[in-house]
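WARN retry 2 of 3 for item q-0093 after timeout on previous attempt; input resubmitted unchanged.
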Amino acid sequence: SRLDLELAPWIQGKCTGEPPVADPACRDDWSLLWVNPSWGFGTAAATTFRWLNLFEDANAIISLKEAAVDYQTPESLVGLRLGGMRGHHYLGLDPLIAASRIQRIDGDRERENLVKLLMKRLDAVLLPVSTTRYFLTRDDLLSHSADRFFIAPVRHQRFWRQFMIPATRGDLETLYHRWLATGAFPKEVTGE
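OK item q-0093 returned
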C-alpha cells in the first residue's frame, strides 16, 4: 500500500539517529492516527516513533440478539462461523481456527462482515467496538438494524488507539497533547 511505501524507511529504522538523517525518504512531516505499536511498525517501533494515546478501544464479539453469543473466552466461539478481517491475526482464536473448531470466514471490510451477520451467513463477527458503534449509528442500512445486534460485554481484547509521530517531532507531540486536552484542533496543523 502507499502507506507501507511511504513509511518503509521509518519502519526499517533508516530514519533515526543523531544527527537527523538527511535522506529525502525520511521526511518527518506526517503523523498517523488510529494505530497501535503492536501492529507491525518495525521491531523498534517504541523508539522510532512517538506514541500518544487517543482512546481505549476493544475487539468485541458481535452477534444478532436472536442468537446472541455469550462470549467469555475464545472457547465460547467453538462450532460457530466467525467473521474476521482478511490478513488479521486473532489472539487466542487462531489455534482454534487452525484446529477447525471455529470456522473463520474472512471479509475485506468491516461493514461487509456486519452485513453478512445480518444475512445470517455468519454467527458472530470480531470487530473493534469503535468501528461497530460507528456503523450502527452512521451507516444507512446498519443503523436501521442496530437494535438487532448484540455486542458481548466481555471483550476479546483491549488496546489503545494512538497517534504515531516521527521520533524527531516533539513539536507535534506537544500540539497533539494540547488538542487532546482541550478538544480544539491545533491551527498549526495542515495537510492533505
